[in-house]
Design brief:
single chain; alpha/beta; 6-stranded parallel beta sheet; 33 helices; globular
């Protein structure tokens, strides 16, 4: 039995269709019909069809996401039909079984083409006559399938390309999305040229470029899809539409884990649109475009989920185009404060408010110490614990709109109402992490309350510091000198007269609890604590392991911590896939042991003789410091992001700890662990350094100076 699936976007001519169905049945075919037209209103006519199955496809995208509805409004008919239908379980199940897929009208062509991507053995046809011939051919072959295409061939597209571009969207669809065309480099170039042809109406150019991009992406040409959209956008005078197409272009590559080749153009387009709207006094639209520009410029796939970042080469140069925007200049203009922060009181304890949003990983010792300090009255505020505070803390677009408006706003009034009671109580506010909450708090004048913000490392790779008014922050705390250098090179406000005071304070860590006896066999155990991010680059540690095992197979690698989340991004998913492939044989042989996440890191470090930092970038790498405190021999990669700069891993750690390559790492490990005595001596020296520099009894004095030095 030959399975045939008809798809119709418009009400068909039922008399013709009924006759054709009988012919299909006579050929031994079983016909199913799915349509986005209203089947119930055609019940009498539908009843004349001798079909084996009938199915109503979704008629709108009304219940889908806002982004999809917005895309549907600007998409041609063929693509809208697919958007409505692609999630339909019946349609997918029937399409997988079909021998012949048939589009009954132009609006259904794109859907048939997309379904044919999933069922590559089915014939994809447009029209009843070609479909009947396909069924006859299958019967003649005894049911075996020989793939054919009833879509226009490449030479037909070349001959009629201009007419297709200028014609109706359905006609464009029939040519632009043909698989042979999009998989052909000639066809791809042809359509990239077509979308830039002079004289094409703006709406047609935009619609055509989206068709072409969609077809290219499904033909495996993601970057080609992006190029087509960018090329079309460059010919569109409407700055808003141009920015939208550019945005779609770079996001096609970003969602595939690719750093976009035209990121700069896309950001520039959003900035141009923001400046146009800002000049016209349309601050809401300007804020939306500026928000999108910042989102693209600091997308995590570019800076966090890769082994490198554009910021590594020239951070200041990377943000220069951003700050040429008039809207961005208005955003970064210092508002200042009406009065300076008041000195710490001498007649009562300092009222210290410590706040963050959900992430208190580096606050435990600070909260415990100052919560019991006789000269401090402490309060802790987790902004994420209140839905109202959480909402205003991460409302990036509202922050931007408020700053661009240059006066009061509903957002500013809401921040004032919710945060003023805390500011009135506190003498000093300590905000951990320079992200959304820091931007939110600097929307309003803090009065005479001192504001202290800590920037770890992650924040420098995000948009949030660029949305923070640092003229309303008194002290900015960094965890390492190289992080301070990076942040200052990125944010012009941190280099101006209104910049806050800078401090470099190590993270609060209780390292004394890591000093536990190590068994002799730990000498051959290399350890890596934390592998949940691409930046940790655990593949580098595997390469080091393989080099030392060439000398002695007793060496093995112990991985502590949770795995990378593949849902984070396509780039993360790809790295994890490659990493798992490398680990599989090593785990099987026992050369690699994964312990997974743990709440008891000290006990795991007791089994580790060498602690490795394999990262491409770090703030201070707590895991390495804890490993050193445990008496493990530290081997730190010269983090490539900062290598060769005035401050780097080499200036943060003692001489000898840092290596420039896996070869150097293997050499240091083999020399330091050559004998048990040499290994224990090296570990002892590492522990002494860690405890004398980074342990909490040492670091807490610096925090006391930060908060209480004026008493």
């Amino acid at each position: 039995m030959t399975e045939v699936l008809f798809i119709a976007a418009a009400k068909p001519q039922f008399g013709v269709l009924a006759d054709s169905v009988r012919k299909f049945n006579a050929q031994g075919a079983r016909v199913h019909l799915a349509g986005t037209f209203h089947l119930e209103s055609c019940a009498d006519e539908v009843g004349t069809l001798e079909v084996a199955g009938l199915h109503q496809l979704p008629r709108t995208v009304a219940h889908r996401s806002q982004a999809l509805r917005r895309k549907a409004r600007t998409s041609p008919l063929g693509m809208r039909v697919w958007m409505q239908s692609k999630g339909d379980a019946w349609l997918r199940a029937q399409a997988r079984k079909a021998d012949v897929l048939v589009a009954l009208d132009p609006g259904a062509v794109y859907t048939v083409w997309r379904l044919a991507q999933y069922n590559r053995s089915a014939e994809a046809m447009f029209g009843l006559a070609p479909a009947l011939k396909a069924v006859e051919g299958l019967q003649a072959q005894g049911g075996s399938v020989t793939r054919r295409s009833a879509l226009p061939p490449l030479d037909a597209v070349a001959r009629d390309v201009r007419r297709s571009v200028d014609g109706l969207p359905a006609a464009v669809m029939r040519t632009a999305t043909a698989r042979p065309v999009m998989r052909s480099s000639v066809g791809a170039r042809l359509w990239r040229t077509a979308v830039t042809a002079p004289g094409v109406p703006t709406k047609v150019r935009a619609a055509t470029s989206r068709y072409v991009a969609e077809g290219m992406q499904w033909a495996g040409r993601t970057s080609g899809a992006a190029i087509a959209l960018v090329a079309a956008a460059s010919k569109i005078p409407d700055l808003g539409l141009r920015a939208q197409l550019m945005d779609e272009a770079v996001m096609k590559e970003i969602t595939k884990g690719i750093s976009p080749r035209d990121l700069g153009k896309a950001v520039a387009a959003q900035l141009a649109h923001a400046d146009e709207q800002f000049a016209a006094g349309k601050t809401a639209k300007a804020a939306s475009a500026l928000d999108r520009a910042l989102f693209l410029d600091f997308h995590r796939v570019l800076h966090i989920d890769q082994l490198t970042s554009p910021l590594a080469k020239d951070a200041e140069g990377f943000v220069k185009p951003l700050y040429r925007s008039k809207a961005m200049q208005a955003l970064s203009r210092p508002q200042g404060r009406k009065v300076p922060a008041a000195p710490a009181p001498k007649d009562r304890p300092l009222r210290l408010l410590v706040t963050t949003s959900a992430n208190d990983n580096f606050l435990h010792h600070i909260l415990e110490h100052f919560g019991n300090h006789p000269d401090v009255e402490l309060r802790y505020l987790d902004l994420a614990a209140s839905k109202h505070l959480k909402r205003i803390s991460w409302a990036g677009r509202r922050m931007l709109e408020d700053r661009l408006a240059g006066g009061t706003s509903d957002y500013q009034e809401e921040v004032e109402r919710l945060m003023r009671p805390y500011l009135d109580w506190a003498d000093t506010v300590f905000v951990d992490w320079s992200v959304g909450p820091a931007g939110m708090l600097t929307t309003i004048d803090p009065g005479d309350t001192r504001i202290v913000v800590r920037l770890h490392s992650y924040e420098a790779f995000t948009r949030w510091p660029h949305m923070t008014d640092f003229s309303r922050i008194d002290d900015l705390v960094f965890v390492a000198p190289h992080v301070k250098d990076l942040a200052a090179s990125l944010v012009p406000q941190l280099r101006g007269e209104s910049a806050p005071r800078f401090h470099v304070l190590d993270n609060a860590m209780d390292l004394s609890g890591f000093a536990r006896p190590k068994p002799a066999e730990a000498r051959f155990n290399l350890g890596l604590v934390g592998i949940s991010q691409v930046a940790k680059d655990p593949k580098w540690a595997v390469e080091v392991l393989e080099r030392v095992r060439k000398h002695d197979e007793r060496y093995r690698l112990i991985l502590v911590g949770g795995d990378m989340d593949p849902k984070t991004s396509r780039a993360t998913r790809e790295y994890r896939r490659e990493f798992e492939q490398e680990l599989a044989p090593l785990e099987e042989s026992g050369a690699v042991v994964r312990l997974g996440p743990t709440d008891d890191v000290p006990s795991k470090l007791a089994e580790i003789g060498t602690i490795i930092s394999s990262s491409v970038r770090e703030g201070c790498h707590v895991g390495l410091m804890e490993g050193a405190a445990s008496g493990a021999v530290p081997v730190a990669r010269d983090w490539p992001f900062y290598a060769g700069k005035p401050n780097s891993a080499r200036t943060l750690y003692p001489e000898g700890w840092v290596v420039g390559s896996p070869e150097e790492a293997a050499k240091r490990i083999l020399e330091s662990t050559a004998t048990e005595d040499a290994w224990r001596e090296a570990g002892k020296l590492a522990a002494e350094h860690a405890l004398s520099v980074w342990d909490w009894p040492v670091v807490r004095k610096h925090f006391e100076e930060l908060f209480l030095d004026e008493r």
